[in-house]
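FIELD: query
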Amino acid sequence: MASIFHGGSLKTRFVVLILLAVVLIILDLKWAKMNQTRAYLTLLITPLQWVVDTPAQVADELSDVLVTRSQLVDDNRRLRQEALLLKQRVLQFASLTAENVRLRELMAGRQKLAEDVMLTELIGVNPDPFQHQIILNRGSEDSAYIGQAVLDSGGIMGQVVELSLYTSRAMLITDSRHAIPVEVNRNGFRSIALGNGSVNQLELGHVPDTADIKEGDLLVTSGLGGRFPRGYPVATVISVKRDPGQPFAVVKVRPTARLNKSRHILLVDLPEAVSLPAEQEQAETKKVTPQIPEATDG
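FIELD: result
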């Protein structure tokens, strides 16, 4: 065979290989022990296959081990950024969920009103601690007007006191210059809720010591003056102090509106409401003590 493959011509070697292949095929088909012979041959070749495959396996392992430190740092930085991005998205989803809840509450409050309303959004807060005012993204171009009632899903927040084309400024009911006519929802007793500069508290002015009012009573707008819609929540009575030596009781109430939390707000358009000049509006929103008892009679 050596003389054939090394010394013979290409044609002779080709013919010999063809005959050898044919013989092996016939033996594989006709000889039953050929399968066993093939298994022995495979067993002999297996170590050679392992030896041939070893360099490739070693190369793969080295490629995994020989990762540079800069690549690890880059991967770590990228993963941290992705983690922060996912956390940010989770926070955004939580914020959107809370906003959706607030809007649903606001729309539920809107359904309670018979008057036309306009949805607006808070875009600013007066930084002066002695002036409780907010800035809204609706102005005269949106048909807002001086004296328009402002409320959220909890109740009355205040009223518009200044206007520009695209924004307006509203005074909250807790402002020390603000007063709003109210009545006790339980028995109809009327009074005036006065702002005292505290964001969580109002006072009732000149309440007789014998008045039927107690803690837990709900105060709603009385509709007197035509500025605020009648029957909408304003505050809840939190304390009533009666002094036998004094003609008036000291009544503290808490606003039902979320004055320092609400972002989406409604502007109520009463049919009988009219826009007032700025000078007249300022005069009406100021708290004038001698005139207060007149509103509490009856």
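FIELD: remark
Residues 119-296 form a domain with the Thrombin, subunit H fold (CATH 2.40.10.340).
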